[in-house]
Amino acid sequence: MSTAAEIADHKSSVRERVWTELRKVAVADSRFHFDFGEFIADFEGGEEAVHRLIDHSFYRDAELIFITPDNCLDRLRLRALQDGKVVLMTTYSIKRGFWLLDPAKIAPDHYLYASTLDGMERVGQHLTLAEIQATLPNVDYMVTGTGAINHEGVRFGKGHGFFDSEWGMLYQIGRISVATPCAAVVHDCQVLVEKLTPDVYDTVVDIIFTPTRTIEVHNPHKPTCGIIWDRLDQHMFDTIPPLQELKAMGL
């Protein structure tokens, strides 16, 4: 059995190998350039990948979608607003919490601005976890970007665990379940054929959308542990108010 250090080393080597290939097709970030440890990049063919996602029944049937604040998903957040879907998202690193973008409450000429990280905090509505629990219906669909992923839907992100924390928080307040579909949008070079072993809190996706493929995952692992407090990085807890709120809620 591999030790925790060996697993961490393997994840790191996978990320570095994928990021070398991703740099050839990625769109540089205005703040982080090609530092893929700090952001999830947009990429050549990103529009085609999103078109595959919006043609799928998971998207068509969803009314409330959680979409991560990844560069490759800006156009999806815009399209969702144009299609009349309500978008729940977080800020970068979750540090300023959850925000709701309701197209019925946003002027259509502000949809593009609202879909960006800068705009969503000025146009959208900030919600605490208690407000999400009390005022919103269940989330119909969870969509994320990632650093690397295999055909079994096991994700390796930037290494910070933000999406798994978002899943854990929404799961603990009862707004998602193991039946909630989850998708990843990535470039083909980010899809691996090798075996990857998820941890108990890792959220495995139901479906992967690339510019050229739609990959469906059979029986993906969805964590039911919520936030495992004794395994949570102390810096994340100290800097992410929603995690502090969840702990205070005693859930």
What can you tell me about this protein's structure?
This protein is an alpha/beta fold and 251 residues long. It has a single domain (4-249), classed as NagB/RpiA/CoA transferase-like (Rossmann fold), CATH 3.40.50.10420. It is 34% helix and 16% strand. It contains 10 helices and 13 strands. The strands form 3 sheets. An 8-stranded mixed β-sheet has the order 6-5-4-3-7-10-12-13, sandwiched between helices. The longest helix has 19 residues, at 4-22. The protein is globular and about 45 Å long. The two termini are 33 Å apart. The relative contact order is 0.15. InterPro entries: FTHF_cligase, FTHF_cligase-like_sf, NagB/RpiA_transferase-like. It comes from Rhizobium aquaticum. GO terms for molecular function: 5-formyltetrahydrofolate cyclo-ligase activity.
Based on secondary structure, the structural category is alpha/beta
Oligomer: single chain
Q: Return residue spans where pLDDT drops below 50 for at least 5 consecutive residues.
A: none
Element string (H = helix, E = strand)? HEEHHEHEEHHEHEEEHEEEEHH
What's the Cα radius of gyration? 17 Å
**Averaged pLDDT:** 93
Percent of residues in helical segments? 25-40%
CATH architecture descriptor text = 3-Layer(aba) Sandwich
Q: Per the principal axes of the C-alpha atoms, what is the gross shape?
A: globular
Alpha plus pi helix count: 10
Q: What is the highest CATH level, the class?
A: Alpha Beta
Give a quick account of the main beta sheet: strands, pairing sense, barrel closure: 8 strands, mixed
Strand content: 15-25%
CATH homologous group name: NagB/RpiA/CoA transferase-like
EC number: 6.3.3.2
GO molecular function, one term: 5-formyltetrahydrofolate cyclo-ligase activity
InterPro entries: FTHF_cligase, FTHF_cligase-like_sf, NagB/RpiA_transferase-like
Pfam families: 5-FTHF_cyc-lig
